């Protein structure tokens, strides 16, 4: 089983993450080490994380090195996800912390699927399936995140897009929910994954791509593009997995 285009998009996003971290010498809003406190020489952690992301993003582009790339990216994204667990334990009623965990975990799930595509034994199918289910659970979280912060979601929608910001906030929340149900039930899962990928790419084009032009010196303008592209690449990996798993 080969996972193609999604893997390349996912890898390019990882390279973008690494470059952003190096330029700003800090983690972005999703990849932050606040739980570690004011540790000395924090920049060293930033450089190590950036190096892993750039290495993983490059390595995952080629079949011979894709396994190493998937391991590197899966490891760093898992660490970033785990950074959120103490914050979740501290205030579990704040869903934003759960949402950040699952955004990172969606990238871990994609790395697991890419890794599974590079091995050729009985465990490959099981690992890929676990990655697929993990991503489906993350889509449930995307739904809840938008639902709980609907007004904030609406603010991301460009004002010029008809028929209105709240319309698209509600519509995309429903779309996330339907995609989660389709992926986890298996009914129309391939169609759902394709539409989900297209929707996330649409977020990138309409919401995040213009951000660096409006605020080029703002870290989140660049980090948001990398994060959205990484999640789009993850959804695309799911699409590739489903497409190549179909009989015939």
Helix content, binned percent: over 70%
Percent range for β-strand residues:
under 5%
Distance between the termini: 13 Å
Extract low-pLDDT stretches.
none
Instruction: Give the helix/strand class.
Output: mainly alpha
Averaged pLDDT: 91
Q: From the alpha carbons, calculate the radius of gyration and give it in angstroms.
A: 18 Å
Tell me the series of helices and strands, N- to C-terminal: HHHHHHHHHHH
Task: Characterize the biggest β-sheet.
Answer: none
Give the tally of β-strands: 0
Give me some keywords for this one.
76% helix; single chain; globular; mainly alpha; 248 residues
Strand and helix layout:
Elements: H1 5-24, H2 42-59, H3 66-82, H4 85-90, H5 95-117, H6 123-148, H7 150-156, H8 165-185, H9 189-208, H10 211-214, H11 219-245
Helix pairs in contact: 1-2, 1-11, 2-3, 3-5, 5-6, 5-11, 6-8, 7-8, 8-9, 9-11
Please describe what this structure looks like.
It contains eleven helices and no strands. It is mainly alpha-helical. The protein has one domain. α3 (66-82) packs antiparallel against α5 and α8 (165-185) packs antiparallel against α9. It starts with a helix and ends with a helix. 42% of the residues are buried. The model has no long low-confidence stretch (mean pLDDT 91).
């Amino acid at each position: 089983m080969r996972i193609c285009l999604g893997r390349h998009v996912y890898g390019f996003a990882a390279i973008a993450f690494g470059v952003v971290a190096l330029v700003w010498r800090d983690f972005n809003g999703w990849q932050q080490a606040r739980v570690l406190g004011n540790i000395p020489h924090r920049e060293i952690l930033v450089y190590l994380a950036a190096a892993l992301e750039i290495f993983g993003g490059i390595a995952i582009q080629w079949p011979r090195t894709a396994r190493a790339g998937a391991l590197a990216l899966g490891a760093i994204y898992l660490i970033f996800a785990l950074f959120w667990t103490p914050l979740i334990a501290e205030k579990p009623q704040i869903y934003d912390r759960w949402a950040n965990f699952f955004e990172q975990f969606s990238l871990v799930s994609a790395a697991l699927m890419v890794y599974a595509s590079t091995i050729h034994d009985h465990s490959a199918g099981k690992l890929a399936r676990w990655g697929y289910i993990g991503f489906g659970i993350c889509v449930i979280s995307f739904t809840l995140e938008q639902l709980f912060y609907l007004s904030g979601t609406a603010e991301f929608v460009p004002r010029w897009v008809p028929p209105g910001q709240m319309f698209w906030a509600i519509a995309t929340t429903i779309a996330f929910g339907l995609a989660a149900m389709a992926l986890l039930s298996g009914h129309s899962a391939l169609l759902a994954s394709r539409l989900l990928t297209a929707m996330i790419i649409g977020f990138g084009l309409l919401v995040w791509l213009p951000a660096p032009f409006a605020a080029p010196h703002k870290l989140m303008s660049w980090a948001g593009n990398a994060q959205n592209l990484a999640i789009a690449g993850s959804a695309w990996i799911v699409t590739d997995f489903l497409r190549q798993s179909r009989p015939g």
